[in-house]
Amino acid sequence: MSRATEESNRRLLRARDAMDRAYASPLDVPTLARIACVSEAHFIRTFRAAFGETPNRYLQRRRVERAMFLLRTTDRSVTDICMDVGFSSLGTFSRVFRDVVGEPPSAYRRRGPLPPVPSCFAMAWLRPASAAPDRAVSEKRGRPAGP
Known about the structure:
It is a single chain. By secondary structure, the protein is an all-alpha fold. It has two domains: about 1-50; about 55-140, Homeodomain-like (Arc Repressor Mutant, subunit A, Orthogonal Bundle), CATH 1.10.10.60. The protein is built from eight helices and no strands. The chain has helices spanning about 5-20, 30-35, 40-50, 55-75, 80-85, 90-100, 105-110, 120-125.
């Protein structure tokens, strides 16, 4: 691997780590591209090539993963969880959650609490798999999200 490729990967990891740390914050592609020190278009293209999904889809999945945990381990309302994980609309949250997990948040919660297993195993087992990993879910109904 060339030195330039290593540096590019390091910058992408910096941006992905920022998404992991601040998933509940309003993050957008221009902010993430600045963290990676590249243009927006180049960031989207290289992020997808490196991680297999767009930055927006990755962030949505991270938010849904956190919501999945909170739904099964707390008794807080779906609306509170929606806002805490970074969504600004309950409708958008419910639609994205259903698209990623395959069922609405309320149905997912009815499964009951998580069984007592090591957290690393539970997180790997419960990680949502995207039905369409190359397509982000738009916050506007009926429109595919563009990179």
